[in-house]
Amino acid sequence: MTPRKRVETMEENRARLITAARRAFAEKGYANASMDDLTAAAGLTRGALYHSFGDKRGLLAAVVNQIDEEMAARAQAIGDRIDDEWEALMAVGAAYIELALEPEIQRIVLLDGPAFLGDPLQWPSQNSCLQSTQTSVRRMVAQGVMAPVDPEAAARLMNGAALNAALWVAASDDPQAVLQRAIDAFRLLSRGLLARPG
């Protein structure tokens, strides 16, 4: 097998394992998903899983990263349709929180992810969200839309508020009932960063 073919095969195996794991983790939860079942669903062996991800936890990290990146892209697409940068940023945060209603996202990213991978603020996918928010904040501070605040501090607080709101919605006994309260509080907290909060 040529080096190029070997790399292509490894990438295909990774993609097949992530797809199978995503389905299994969504249906059964991380703890109840059998490595044998998910590798069989991918048509691969445990050896392929170990080679690509190290272990089941590494596979969960890859699945969480994929879904979290999709969440960020979906939320950003909503913000991109709004001309006002502040309102766009609020729409992105609200959309991210609302995605917590989707069962796959609830179970894999917002419940099992933190339980088995630790603090979501340390996940690689959260860093790209943070950078995007920080860029927007820096621009709005320079324009006088936002109060003179450290862009990184403001971005971390805003992203943390949206993430924690999503975690709250996902863990709630009645996510739909909690959703609007979470979004309203996120918007109200964020509004305090405006140059003219009214």
TrEMBL record:
GO molecular function, one term: DNA-binding transcription factor activity
Keyword presence, DNA-binding: yes
Keyword Cell cycle attributed: no
Signal sequence region: none
PROSITE patterns: HTH_TETR_2
Domain HTH tetR-type: 11-71
Protein keywords: DNA-binding
Domain of life: Bacteria
DNA-binding region location: 34-53
PANTHER family, per database record: HTH-TYPE TRANSCRIPTIONAL REGULATOR RUTR, HTH-TYPE TRANSCRIPTIONAL REGULATOR UIDR
Protein name, entry field: Transcriptional regulator, TetR family
Protein source organism: Paracoccus laeviglucosivorans
